[in-house]
Design a protein that fits this description.
The complex is a heterodimer of chains A (673) and B (177). By secondary structure, chain A is α/β, with parallel strands linked by helices. Chain A contains 16 helices and 15 strands.
Chain lengths: 673, 177
Amino acid sequence: MKLEFVEVCGFRGYAAPVRFQFGSAYTVLDGRNGAGKSSLFDAVEFALTGTISKYENASASGQTVDDYIWWRGPFPATKEKYVEVGFSDSGKRVSIRRNQASLVSGTKLDDLQALLCDSAIAPGGALAQLCTHAIVRDEQITRLSLDLKETDRYALLRASLGATDAEEWISRAHLIAGLAKERLEAAKRDVENANSALAVSTRALDQIRVSIIGEVQINSAVQRLQRLTESNLPADQLISRARGFLVSHSAVAEKLRGFLGAWASTDSCRKQVAVLQRQLVEAQALRDQAITRIGALPSVSAQESSSNLSRKARAIANLVQLGKDVGYTDGHCPLCSKNQSEAEFALGLDLAMELARSLDKSAVASADLERRLDDARREVAQCEATVREHEKGLNDAKSAIAKYEADLIEAGFERDASESAIRDRLVSVEAEALVVQQDVRVLDTLSLNRDLERIAKELESAKQRSTQAQARLSAAVTTEASAKALHDATRRAASETLEVRLERVLPLMAELYRRLRPHPVWSSLEYAIRGDVRRFLKLQVGNGLNPQFMFSSGQRRATGLAFLLSVNLSLAWSKFKTIMLDDPVQHIDDFRAVHLAEVCAHLIAQGRQVICAVEDEALADLFCRRWPASNTDDAKRISIGADKDANIAILSERWLTALPRDTLLAMPKLAAG
Amino acid sequence: MTRILEFCEQILKEGSISTEGSSSPIPLLIFEDATVLGFIIEYDSSAALLDNWSHHADRVVAHYQMALRRSALKAWNCNFFFLAAGSADAREQAGFTAIEEDLVGTRKIARAGVNNLHDVREALLSLLPIQNAPSIEAVDMSAEVRLRTSELPSMAIEAFIQRADATTVLQLMGSSE
């Protein structure tokens, strides 16, 4: 299938309708910048996919390429805007038309895809991929080749070979292997659970068997319990009574332990009573002695109190001093106005002073007596306090002893029961309780026979479940191994067939590189596929040099052309024989442009259709001279530009004719002659 | 005609390119197809090639000028191949590059180290059809999977190939044991 025509109206820079009819061998278009060359190729992609991929997802100010697909020039376009693309193959013609509403008319897209692609091996989004590989755009030459990551480069080449079908096989095998693995894990869990249940049942059975008691022991236990509980109840009813016995014995034992705990403190109280009684008698004697001493001391009246005597002595002394200070006055005493001589006055003062001294001496003696009385009284008070304290201690001790003895009597002991007697009773009670406990446990085993029967059944069931689970696990292991082997085999099938196909494609890339001769020194390109999980396609020249970093811009483009052309020629699933080159020689010198012309000439000779747009008219002429044409209107030269109405239009077009044949070989002798 | 020129003739005929040997004005091989014509001249060494190619080209063009005029536009596609048996050092290789990048008048290819059929094929590559055009058929994954799963249960593999669901394939894998 080849491209027959493209008709655009109101699309990109085309305001008015223009129809390009292509030669089945090749068409060379020339036109200056903005002449609409690239839009022609965009139209093919838009008709097939509804978008233009070269802008990727670029957006600016909320606008995308979708806002610029249709004419937005300074004057109105023709009312109806559309793109129509026609294909033909051996007389069969189909076309597709897409309008501004992106409505498709003409051939259905699915039908068109079936004509352009081998649906059995085509990858998803085949038409979009077809456009990617069939339209070689100037700005994408290096971006889709040398500048690709090695993994993406490998993926691009793999997709071109239609290897995606294998991915679906691998995916299904992976699903099966995953499911088998899940079932294996589930079977393992079943076995673990069954074994665990088996172990639990086995342990339970062992425990019951160990716990089961002989008949003689049971009879002995029954007799003991009947004796201890003073009853003739049968064994199954005796357990309840025995448990009641244990409760009451436990309370008694607790009480006895209380007696033993208080015994030491009570004994201490008894010993303390005698001591306290002696101390009380001694305190009473001391108190009596103190009272006797008070009675032996003379009493002191108020007049004879030391304070009164001392106050009188100070008053008389003050009076004497006053008399001395005033002195004998006018023949009489200034104190009493008595007429007397001065000698008498002085004698009177001395006598008064002697009296003051005598009073003071009596005050000192009286104070000593008062102190001795006070001391005796304080001693009496202290003795009385001591007596009261001893009396209280004695009473408390006696009360504690009395209460303890009352509790003992209540518990059946003598008032003066010894500690060993209490301890013996406690030992006896605890021993009885222990015996009862053991005998109760013996009687409890009577119910184990029923449990034994039940657990034996459970054990048998667990064994069966374990056996079944083991069988399922064994089958799951085998199935999982088979599923894994299937997955591995599918992956190997995909990988090995892909490797074989790649080995057939990569030599083509190397040959195209040699033909395009991007570099004067590195005349051959080497390739390597590496990586086990993620695969890489590495391109190198010379001794491991990376052309991506080694080559100039033009050389990288020439290398990129070799890669993209080899991918295009390798599209195993493509039935589209057209290669569209949009200005492929930008930055490429005339020497390498000649090489490209030679490569394209061979592609055309082998049945490919080449549609190439360039800016340079001379280069367009070169292509037209170099590429093979017949005389059957299969090759065309078209010039594009603005017409007199400023619309982009076809300025000229002509069918090319074949070059003369046998011009040199037929004439060598003539020429030589 | 020398052995190398015989190799050239053989290879060009394989590519459906007509040839004819000539000794005028110098020993050479003439070739022509629908779009291309030209001459192949052989040299003993790279030095001899570098010394003589220009003079020889002028002589050949002069000798065949009438025929070239008659070929009209096809004369634009005139190719000269200068082939040397001996190897070229870096300086000589640079000289060869200069010859090839000189597009005045004719297309020129200058190569050294041309000694056997393979070397000749490489030198004449621009005239020859694509040598490694891949012809890749669709992969029959069913056959490829069968080939690699012969030890696995055949019914399960057939179910997988027939796109049965995963549960069915696993059942068949398990039941065949």
